[in-house]
Amino acid sequence: MPLWVFVGASVVKDDGSKESAKNYNERASDIAQVLGFLAWFLGEKEQAKQALSAVYQGDAASAGLIDKQGNEIFSGSFPWLKEQQLTVDALYRDILTHSFHAAGGGTLNVDRITGDSGELLLKVGEAEKPFGLINVGDALGLAEHLESHDIKHLQVRKSELANPIFAEVTRDSSPVNLLIGSKKFVEGWNCWRVSSMGLMNTGKKEGSQIIQLFGRGVRLKGRDMSLMRSSRLDPILAPKYLYLLETLNVFGVGADFMATFRDFLEDEGLPGNDNPEVHTLKLNVMEDVGKSLKMLRPKVRQDTRQAYSFHRDGPLVSFGHPVLSGDFQNALGLTPDIVLKERRVEVDRYPRVDSIQASGVKEVMAKPGLAKQQSRYFDNDRLLFVDMAALARDLERYRRNRGYANVLIDAHRLPALLKSQIWYTLLVPDDQWKLRADNFQRYQSMALELLSLLLDRVFNYHRRAYLEPRMELVALEEASGNLPATSEYQLVVDGSESALIDDIKQMKMAIEQQQQAAYRSSKANGISALQLGVHLYHPLLHLGKDSRIRVEPVVLNDSEYRFVEDLRAWLERNQQLIAERGEQIYLLRNLVKQGIGFFEAGGFYPDFILWHVQQDKQRIVFVDPHGVRHTGSKDEKIEFAERIKDVQRRLKDERVELESFILAPSSTTSAWVNSYWGMTAEELRAKHVLFMSDSDYLDSLMQTVTAPAA
């Protein structure tokens, strides 16, 4: 349930002493004003419903709620509620039931918990569950203040049996839907539930604290702990009105926080969102081609008519317990690729420092030698200082956040895993590995990182083993989730960004009216567009660095856009040859976490799918402009070019070939990889790793794409 928070200045000074009587009464009056409103809403039902109707229907004449431009503040608001066609009576009952835990309304009871907890519980009538909580420095003083003001429909009670509940507010199961307190929430309090925030006489001086306050509300857990809004994580299939729950609503009583916040945004070069503009651009999807192009997907179960899912249908995996796979067996549950192919988990804690030397200096200085890095392994001495209970909790939290529902973690197996020298390489400088107190927390962190990476490997192995025999080739249109379901892009920009708005209009004119093949923005943070005839939908959009334009459903990053531009140039140079051979080439930008993914590569979702079609044969090539600086030569994505051939053999379809390529962006050169990985450019090319810094990288890619079928 979302949480509504009211925040005001503290009624206790930082040194613990109380404020002056004048200031105290001002702060207490703020809270009394809020409680008076709640008591009125609960007790004066007909008046409350009239006010609710004015806000709900957007009646500015009676509500008096207009902005500085004279627009109704709530005009166009509450789209989900209005779609349900609820009456005001039904809406009022729903608020009483779900927000106040009292379907019939009643008196607002303020129960002061005895002791020094500083808490007062808010309940309605005889309801047992509190709907609200007040947390202040002087609860007794606030209770006396409320009693002295004789607020209608409100009574203050002393509670001898109630227990403090502030610590439980962050839980999803908490009945508290309203939290009233001081600015103490700025310092250290963390809660995912905050959805609406009211400020009382706050924001007149506290600039940085206001930004911190907003930070409490804009934090978003996201699906599977992704920390992403639905529009970014899954722009196509996200529920229509989910964004309403992902939006922080902020308002104030006697607070000039909006001016403070707007000033902060301007100082940081960010939009103020005074009047966001929404522009649309037609998105054209290629018709019928999806019937002929082939794509991979898990088979459909005959009983449920749903595609096989390891999460839903697969077996349980006991992490750290023996695993048996054919002739392979390991007592610690390690996978064959780790043990037999020595694809170890690697954690490198050595610092990396990049340096640049002038050419003249390089000539007279000796070449730097590679530093000797020491591999470490946990022993009994260091495991004594690892909190195994905390490690198990953190690993369990990681499991839940990653969505590994099929995995069971046995805390008793963790020490044996850490002492094993088979599955990991831990590179740590001497001073961070010495047995001393200031390294104990480092041991804890290293152990968690190692086990988390191993958990990924184990889960992906078992998911792969389950789904490998259940993959099939189908027409692209049957593999749902690969093409946008919308017919237009939405481009949202702040109304004050006149230069960006002009840029959007020029782009639209160039693409929609003038039918230009490309539009390249002259602004560093502008929008560019590219028409590519072989792409299954167009145009493709790209935003400049730190752009303040928001685009849905998808935009390309720098390396992705560079790849598409280079492919267009290659096709223009070779279009006659392709036509003479009777070949066809198609491209599709794969959708993030929704399109085609590969469990052979640890849940790898390549950015692009490239088809080469000649007569009844197809070559499907997965292309990923992907940074490799934080991977290694044995990374699953690097090895995927070999593994995908195993997938091809299992399909047993001579008309289809599968290939995979990694395109390292221009910032990474083959010389850099050779220095750190010890692999030559030829060895990397054999693994289908190409470098966009090489002028012939696309020729190398397309040579494989267009090669005669085997």
Please, could you describe this protein's structure?
- The chain is an alpha/beta fold and 710 residues long.
- Helices cover 35% and strands 20% of the residues.
- It has 24 helices and 30 strands.
- An 8-stranded mixed sheet has the order 5-2-3-4-6-1-7-8, sandwiched between helices.
- Helix 1 (21-43) packs across helix 2 and helix 15 runs parallel beside helix 18.
- The chain is globular.
Query: In order across it, which strands form the biggest sheet?
Result: 5-2-3-4-6-1-7-8
Mean pLDDT equals: 80
Gyration radius, in Å: 31 Å
- Residues in helix, %: 25-40%
Structural class by helix and strand composition: alpha/beta
End-to-end CA span:
58 Å
Number of helices: 24
Shape: globular
Q: Which regions are unreliable across 5 or more consecutive residues at pLDDT < 50? A: 11-22, 353-371
- The total of beta strands comes to 30
* Major pleated sheet: 8 strands, mixed
- Into which percentage range does the β-strand content fall? 15-25%
Organism: Vreelandella olivaria
Protein name: Restriction endonuclease
Give the structure's gist in a few sentences.
This protein has 24 helices and 30 strands. The protein is 35% helix and 20% strand.
List the helices and strands and how they pair.
Elements: E1 3-8, H1 21-43, H2 45-56, H3 60-63, H4 79-83, H5 88-98, E2 108-113, E3 119-124, E4 132-135, H6 139-148, E5 154-159, E6 178-182, E7 194-200, H7 207-218, H8 230-233, H9 242-245, E8 249-253, H10 257-267, E9 277-282, E10 284-285, E11 294-298, H11 310-313, E12 317-319, E13 323-325, E14 328-330, H12 336-339, E15 345-348, H13 359-364, E16 375-376, H14 380-383, H15 388-402, E17 407-409, H16 414-419, E18 424-427, H17 430-433, H18 440-467, E19 471-475, E20 488-493, H19 498-513, E21 518-519, E22 527-530, E23 537-538, E24 540-543, E25 550-552, H20 558-581, E26 583-589, E27 608-614, E28 617-625, H21 636-651, E29 656-664, H22 670-677, H23 681-686, E30 689-691, H24 697-705
Parallel strand pairs: 1-6, 1-7, 2-5, 4-6, 7-8, 12-17, 15-18, 28-29, 29-30
Antiparallel strand pairs: 2-3, 3-4, 9-20, 10-23, 11-19, 13-14, 16-18, 20-25, 21-22, 22-24, 26-27, 27-28
Helix pairs in contact: 1-2, 15-18
